[in-house]
Amino acid sequence: MKSNLLRRFVAGLLIAIPIVVLGIALYTVFEVIQFIGDPLFGLIGTGTPFDSAIEHVLAGFAAGVTLYLLGYAAELQVIKDRVNRLDRLLVLLVPGYTMIKGFIGGVVHEDAMTEGFRPVLVDTVDSTRIGFEIERSDSGKVVVFLPNAPAASTGIIAAYDAERVTRLNVPPHRVMEMLSFYGAGLTDLDKLQIN
Fold it and tell me: How far is the C-alpha of 130 from the C-alpha of 187, rounded, in Å?
């Protein structure tokens, strides 16, 4: 009972953090648009008590259009190249960046974001272990992070032949949750979809 409560609390926390960050970002964008647009919105003032509401609606609409245009720009190849370069730099400079990116990618079901932290099963000499694929080389080697339980942020890194590594179709945060509870839930591995 206690472990279920704690597991749900941790899962809720992992879901709440990106939502709170997104909410703060959207509020900031809204405030910036409203600040920039105040002179423009003042020109269309009707002198009624609804001016403030109209201003907020227009600022929200402008923020939505801005976010859409930023999303469109993110799909341009020039922007993708710059984002990929920034991504590689962050991997080198920020400890845990790959892990955080993998968690977020698993939560939003974005496969491109889970690259570099994809859950896998590894056949070792005497057992099968769960871990995270860090990278795959052309020579057939796969670098895998094998976390410890319950401190899943620590572990070992090893290179295995590709045939010993099986990708799992499960989000990284789910695997970390299992590991933080000493492997509870790992017996359901036969039910996991394996790629």
Answer: 12
Tokens of 120: 């896998």
The yes/no answer on whether domain 111-191 falls in CATH 2.30.30 is yes
Q: Which long-range contacts (CB under 8 A, 24 or more apart) does 104-107 make?
A: 104/18, 105/171, 105/172, 106/170, 106/171, 106/172, 106/173, 106/174, 107/14, 107/15, 107/18, 107/171, 107/173
Tokens of 150: 């319950």
| Reported pTM | 0.48
Segment (H or E) for 79: helix 77-93
What are the sequence ranges of the domains in the chain?
A: 2-75, 111-191
Does the pLDDT of residue 160 top 90, yes or no?
Answer: yes
